[in-house]
UniProtKB/TrEMBL annotation:
Substrate binds at F153, L154, R155, E156, K208, F253, L254, H255, P256, G257, G261, K325. It comes from Winmispira thermophila (strain ATCC 700085 / DSM 6578 / Z-1203) (Spirochaeta thermophila). This is UDP-glucose 6-dehydrogenase. GO terms for molecular function: NAD binding; UDP-glucose 6-dehydrogenase activity. NAD(+) binds at D32, K37, T88, T123, E156, K267, R332. The lineage of its organism: Bacteria, Pseudomonadati, Spirochaetota, Spirochaetia, Winmispirales. One of its GO terms (biological process) is polysaccharide biosynthetic process. It catalyses: UDP-alpha-D-glucose + 2 NAD(+) + H2O = UDP-alpha-D-glucuronate + 2 NADH + 3 H(+). Keywords: NAD, Oxidoreductase. Its EC number is 1.1.1.22. It is an enzyme of class 1 (oxidoreductase).
Length: 441
């Protein structure tokens, strides 16, 4: 039986949830306070770039299973389930800011006049779902609703694929009654034998933080090993590959680079440290992961400096890649930002390119030059610094780049180029976790 579902918040998570649940055959209404966004979504414009999103948005709008509104009242009219997917950004002190959830609860409570399952999709600190239950109970008869914690594990760029083929679905609950509803919503996932983890609210909340912090730890770990590999003359890729052959380690997330970014890892690791502080539990390991990540970014600036003879003053640097990873236009917590800021402070002139994220990055840093393509960026540059692993940078025409540059130097912070080829083309090349540039090559 298709269900009637409201999804509050149409950001990455909310919108993917909307189109995914509608595609499962449910009737879904997405709610957002942003009038312009609602208009664009209703017209089939996904607003953000996400592979496959536009197709599923249009298909489900056309099938009449999906609609968008600014009115919570309209969305809630016959809804059996409401997903909360509003933002939980980072506060100044690193804690998660729950004010958007609070505002939604205030608006939602007076509208609950029939049994409703309230599902939290947003990443929220441990204790939040219990608090949501308490807050709502102050305003509504507790027999009229249940609260479920259903954290998302979507990767940007693969959000649609991850929605339809998750490696697990985590459901934190208290009342057995929700099981039937959640089963019904995710029925298609049962058919493909997706594992379901049924647990308490607190367990579900902590699974999300622990999973993200663990992945971030793997990245900071391999980055530090990469730094050591550079010093001792070892190759981090061979190390990561051999480490990954041990099934207990797994080869995934052992790719070195300029440090992790994005909307989840930086925010969630900081929030986890705060949760630990609140409960008096030592999470120094996670704190160190954050510190190592910041240091990794600055190490890239130091590498650039060394490659250019010790100073960036007046040097022209082509930064290729501004998004926090490939296949997205998202620049939240992107390593390119602190790296470019630091280089500008050291007197460098930066000309940047990104296939998708230039518009977003321009809002963060309007004062640098932006080039139409990677070759224009490289024109007259002393150094090409690759910051995002876009495929088009893997296939750079190095001869053409070499002709355009003032000095032939490449800092490849994602190891997307073949060092041998780059050197044969006459470049001084440096990656991460491989041979270090020591003044001559
Ligand atoms: C992540 C989680 O994967 C997802 O489960 C969660 O729900 C949200 O956060 P996402 O932020 O989209 O997803 O990006 P992801 O592909 O995981 O990469 C995060 C960051 O780590 C990127 O900056 C990426 O470049 C970096 N990274 C990833 C590495 O530096 N090395 C790696 O081996 C893997």
């Amino acid at each position: 039986m298709p269900m009637k579902i409201a999804v509050v918040g149409t950001g990455y998570v909310g919108l993917t949830t909307c189109v995914g649940l509608a595609d499962f055959g449910n009737h879904v209404v997405g709610v957002d306070i942003d009038r312009e966004k609602v208009a664009r979504l209703s017209a089939g414009d996904p607003v953000i770039y996400e592979a496959g999103l536009e197709y599923y948005l249009r298909e489900n709008l056309a099938a009449g299973r999906l609609s968008f509104t600014t009115s919570m009242k309209e969305a809630l009219r016959d809804a059996e389930v409401v997903f909360l997917a509003v933002g939980t950004p980072e506060k100044e002190n690193g804690e998660a800011d729950l004010s958007q959830i609070e505002a939604v609860l205030e608006e939602l409570a007076p509208l609950i006049d029939h049994y409703l399952v309230v599902v939290t999709k947003s990443t929220v600190p441990v204790g939040t779902n219990r608090w949501i239950h308490e807050e709502l109970s102050r305003m509504v008869d507790p027999r009229l609703f249940d609260v479920v914690s259903n954290p998302e594990f979507l990767r940007e760029g693969k959000a649609i694929q991850d929605f339809f083929h998750p490696n697990r679905v985590v459901i934190g609950y208290e009342n057995e009654r929700v099981k039937e509803v959640m089963h019904e919503i995710y029925r298609p996932l049962y058919l493909i034998e997706t594992p379901f983890v049924w647990c308490s609210w607190e367990t579900a909340e902590l699974i999300k933080y622990a999973a993200n912090a663990f992945l971030a730890t793997k990245i900071s770990f391999i980055n530090q090993v990469a730094n050591l590999a550079e010093e001792v003359g070892a190759d981090v890729h061979v190390i990561a590959k051999a480490m990954g052959m041990d099934g207990r380690i797994s080869p995934k997330f052992l790719h070195p680079g300029p440090g992790f970014g994005g909307s989840c890892f930086p925010k969630d690791t900081k929030a986890l440290v705060k949760i630990g502080e609140r409960y008096g539990v030592d999470l120094s390991l996670v704190r160190e992961v954050i510190r190592a990540n910041e240091a990794q970014r600055m190490r890239m600036v130091e590498k650039a400096k060394r490659l250019l003879g010790g100073s960036l003053e007046g040097r022209r640097i082509a930064v290729l890649g501004l998004a926090f990873k490939a296949e997205t236009d998202d620049v939240r917590e992107t390593p390119a930002y602190p790296i470019i800021r630091a280089m500008l402070e050291e007197g460098a002139v930066v000309c940047a390119h990104d296939p998708l994220a230039m518009e977003n990055f321009r809002r963060l840093v309007p004062s640098i030059e932006y080039a139409e393509n990677e070759y224009e960026a490289a024109r007259g540059a002393d150094l090409v610094l690759i910051c995002t692993e876009w495929n088009e940078y893997r296939n750079l025409d190095l001869e053409r780049v070499a002709e355009l540059m003032r000095e032939r130097k490449i800092l490849d912070t994602r190891n997307v180029l073949d060092p041998e080829r780059a050197r044969k083309t006459g470049f001084v090349y440096e990656g991460v976790g491989r041979i270090l540039f020591r003044g001559k090559q």
